[in-house]
Amino acid sequence: MQRSFIAKNPSVLVFLAILALFTLLVTVMSEGFGVGGISTSFIKTLGKTLCLCLIALAMDVIWGYTGILSLGHFAFFGLGGYMIGMWLMYERTRLIVVDSLAQAEIPPTDGEVIDAVGNQIFGVVGSSEFPLIWAFADSLVIQLILVVFVPGILALVFGWLAFRSRVTGVYLSILTQAMTLALALYLFQNDSGLRGNNGLSGLQNLPGVTASQDYVSLWFFWASAAALGGGYVLCAWLVSGKFGSVLRAIRDNEARVRFLGYSVEMYKLVIFTLTACIAAVAGALYYPQAGIINPAEIAPIASIYLAVWVAIGGRGRLYGAIIGAAFVSLLSTWFTGGQAPDINLGFYTVKWVDWWLVLLGLSFVLVTLFAPKGIGGLIDLYTERRSPSRHGADLGPDDGALREQEASQ
Amino acid sequence: MNTLLEVSGVSVTFDGFRAINNLSFQIAEAEMRAVIGPNGAGKTTFMDIVTGKTRPDEGRVIWGESSMNLLRMNEAKIAQAGIGRKFQKPTVFEDQSVQENLLMALKNNRGWLAVLRYRPTKVDLAKVDDLAEQIGLKDQLGRKSGELSHGQKQWLEIGMLLAQEPRLLLVDEPAAGMTPSEREHTTDILVEAAKTRAVVVVEHDMEFVRRLNCKVTVLHEGAVLAEGSLDHVTSDQNVIDVYLER
Question: Which of A131, A265, B14, B45 is 20 to 30 A removed from B111 (C-alpha atoms)?
Answer without folding.
Answer: B45
